[in-house]
Each structure stands twice: as structure tokens, then as C-alpha cells.
Amino acid sequence: MEQNFIHEDFLLESKTAKHLFHTYAKELPIIDYHCHLPIQEIASKKKFENLTQIWLYGDHYKWRAMRANGINEKYITGDATDLEKFVAWAETVPNTLRNPLYHWTHMELKKPFGIADRLLDKTTALGIWEECNAKLATDEFSTYGLIKQFNVETVCTTDDPVDSLEFHKQIKQAGFEFKVIPAFRPDKAMAIDMPETYYDWFAKLQAVTEFEIKSFKDYLEALKKRHDYFHLNGCRLSDHGIEAPYVEEYTEQDIENIFAKVLLKKELSLSEVLKFKSAMLYEFAVMDHSKSWVQQFHFGALRNVNSKMYNTLGPDTGYDTMGDFEIAMPLVKFLDKLEKQNKLTKTIVYNLNPRDSEALTTAIGCFQDGSIAGKMQYGSAWWFLDQKIGMEKQIDTLSVLGLLSKFVGMLTDSRSFISYPRHEYFRRILCNVIGREVENGLIPNSEELVAPLIKNICYYNAKNYFDF
After folding, report:
1. Could you read off the pLDDT of 78-87 as tens digits, one per residue?
2. Could you identify which of 30, 266, 354, 408 might form a hypothetical disulfide with 152, taking C-beta atoms 3.0 to 4.6 angstroms apart as the criterion?
3. pLDDT at 3
4. How many CA atoms lie within 13 A of 134 on its CB side?
């Protein structure tokens, strides 16, 4: 009988790799310390009406592939029915061979839906649609049920400083069997170069803090109030989605003058914007250090490059790309400033352009201080690099330029409740890399050495690193 495409030894190319995965990695809980799951949908234990709603809504990875396959936008983000959109995706899937979407699609069909005996294409689409929709109607396939099915211990959502965190409170009061923790994402607080959205956000900050902001000092005070509020509600990490570290020289008076112009809604120069962002990035880092939070930096995305489609569909619709920003010099300057003042907290950096991998890994290595194992982390392969080749390169880069043994492991960075097989994908790839090197004599064939490595990277390092 022909073996299913996604089988128990998928991606595991050696006897040792299979042993490592099935014995040490497979059953460990998941700590998903960075994702974009909608918190209200977790709190409400939402059920999805059909496979398109849980699988295709908001998934710009799939949208990009469909566009490349010649699918009309009507069947991607347009007014086609959910069934029509699903069929368009099913027709696209066979054309994604060697793209990670082909693996992810079939891994997600196997778990949680239990479909491993068929490949998705236009001939199998309707049967898969009906079978999955029937399961989605059950409690086991609600957002709550899915997170439990995937053995997720902790979920960290991504939240704006002005968020009330009401749904996090609701979840805590309800006594969910897993933790859901907010993460502080203050990108909008820095975005004075985007007045069309900044001033609406600024009004919300004043409203939620019940604090009239008349100066930069007031502005910092309001943001510190929100930082304190997040901490009281379980937050222990921040995240910044920025092109590169901002490290312009500035004085306190410079920033007060710039913010005075912001309050008057006056036009700002590029130099003023960069000085303000530099000041804010530093102040947020100081806040994080004061509470021993983990700070995360996602570097290198060039966003919304197709202005026509941005004006039509808005952000996060598949029109972002890798940027080629200067990273190393501003990063070490930023970290050095914090280190000199003893205000450098635990830090994770992620890069989108693979050319920056070695530079980032060696840069953060200069700021390991012996106080915490793996204090400075080169984060998991992210976004366009979040695939087999990218994960292997991230593992290799960290191995030769840092300590793979202290790596805090995988995350989903996803908006989908069925993307948790990405943790399994990473674990299989990790076990395959280590298993291959054991069998090639590059790593000792020692259970005592290798088993803790696998278990720590897949789960225990993250559990120890984050103060949840």
C-alpha cells in the first residue's frame, strides 16, 4: 500500500532523527510566545462556519500564491463565495510544490482534521470541504478546542498599548486550561510619520489613560501607565516591527520640540521623525528592562510596496517584501547604549533578509553578559524565511556563531488557529538536522548529550526564559 504523503516519519531521513522526534520532541507542549491570533475569538471560543473562514481569511501567504497562479482577486479577497474561494485555493495547491505551503497545507489537513489519505486539488476539494466543515461545527474545533488539541500550554497575543485587555481578563476569569498572555506592541506610538492613523491612536491613548498629554514628558508618562497596566495583566514581553534599529543622536530638548510640533499637527522632517523614533525605541527598552521583560525586534520588512493594492485592500494583504536596510551598525549602537547604562533586558532579534543572519547573530553575541543563559537570542526563521531551508539555515547559523543549545525555539507568528503544525514542522527539521549529524559522526551518538538538546529547544528553554 502506498504511504500517505504526510506520514509519521515525514522529513525524518535517518533512524536517529526518527528516534529523536518520536521519543523526545513529538509530545512536548507548545509555548507559542509570538502570534497574531485574535484574542476575542479565543475568549468567545469561536466556531468557524467553514474551512475558508479558518484557513483562507487573512492568510496572505496563500493569497500571494493564488495571485501568482493567476487567480482573480475576486476569489482571493473579493466577493466570491467561501466555497468558490476554497476551490480556487484547492486548484492552486498542486502548483505550490517546493513552496512551504504545500507541506503546511497537508500537515494542517492531517492535524487537526485527520485527512492524510488525499492530496488537496480540484478533484478532492468538495469532499475535503464537506468533511472539514462537519468537524468545524463541533466544540473540539472551536478556537478553544483547537488550542487544546495542539497541546498548547501558552499563547502570547500581540496587543496595542491602548488595548483594554478585557478579553485576556475574561479568559483568566474563565479558567482556561492554557495561558493566554498579552504582548506589548507599541509600533503606533512611534508612527508620527503616519498622521492619517497616528492621531486617532493618540486620542485613544488619552482616553484610556484619562490623561491630557501636553508634552513629551506627559506622553512618556501615559505610555508608562499602559506598560504598568500590561504588566499587571500578565504581560512579560514586548515586540517591535521596525525596518531597522533607530539610533539617531538627539537631546531631550530635541524630542520635546519635535513632540510640540506633533501636538500642533505640523509637518515633520525625516530627521525629526528618526530622532523621535530613536528616542521612543530607547524609552521602551528602558521600560522593558525595569520589569525584566523580554524585548523582541522584527527587522527588515518593506511594507505595502504595491500602492494600488494598498489603497484597495489596506495593509497585511500580501504586498510586503524583504527590505535591504542597514542592520548591524545601528543594532550594536542601540544595544551598546543600553548596555552602558545597565538597561539591556533579555532580547530576541529576527531578520527577514537572509543576508543579515550572520551579522545579527554575531552582533548580539557581543552583548551576552553571563547573567542569563541565552539572554540575547537569534530568533526563529521568520515570515519569508519560515520554511525548511530557512529553518535549517537559522539552526546552522546559531549553531556555529552562538549556542543552539540555548535557543528558545519555534513560534507561529500566525493569525490562523490551525497553524500550530509549524511547531511540529520545526521539531521534525531540528531532529532531522541533529540526527543526520549524529549518524555522520559530527555529534557523539550519546543519548545523554542529544536528548536534552532536543527537549530544551522544543520546550524547556522557552519555559525557563519567559517569566510566565
Report:
1. 999 999 999 9
2. 30
3. 83
4. 6
